[in-house]
UniProtKB/TrEMBL annotation:
This is Ligand-binding SRPBCC domain-containing protein. InterPro entries: Polyketide_cyclase/dehydratase, START-like_dom_sf. It comes from the Bacteria. Gene3D superfamilies: 3.30.530.20.
Length: 151
């Protein structure tokens, strides 16, 4: 499986960053450039243990649907989500929120595998890892701006 980690310093308490990361509307805002919308959202409008969500987005000019489940919520230390249906052979995203004297270090670790065996592995190595890293970094920038403005 391919993987990467992105870290971002956010000048806010871990509780605030954790809550923002569980907000599906903020996720939609951060993925606006990819035409991502929430087709089916979590009950109550916020992610909780076992919540599922289905997203529709356009990547590489192709429309995709991805359904994921949220699990292992440990407030405010982190949570995980993984694809249960969608374009990847496997996809897991671990979110960690580490206390820091200046606020919170938000650490996103993504592990994924594209379909189609060796061809998918080559795509992951040459293209997908960097594409997803930028996408996660974009998401983090929007989340950080939102949390830091509301302080």
């Amino acid at each position: 499986m391919a993987s990467f980690t992105v870290e971002r310093m956010i000048r806010a308490e871990p509780d605030a960053v954790f809550e923002a990361a569980l907000n599906p509307e903020l996720h939609v805002e951060s993925m606006e450039r990819y035409d991502e919308i929430m087709v089916e959202g979590p009950a109550g409008g916020v992610f909780t243990e076992g919540s599922t969500v289905t997203w529709r987005a356009r990547h590489f000019g192709i429309r995709f649907r991805l359904t994921s489940v949220v699990f292992d919520i440990e407030r405010p230390a982190g949570f995980s989500d993984r694809q249960v249906a969608g374009p990847f052979a496997a996809f897991r995203h671990d979110h960690a929120f580490l206390p820091h004297p200046e606020g919170t270090i938000m650490r996103d670790t993504v592990a994924f595998r594209s379909p189609f065996g060796p061809i998918g592995t080559l795509v992951d190595r040459l293209l997908m890892r960097e594409y997803l890293r930028r996408l996660i970094d974009d998401r983090g920038a929007v989340l950080a701006a939102s949390v830091e403005q509301s302080r």
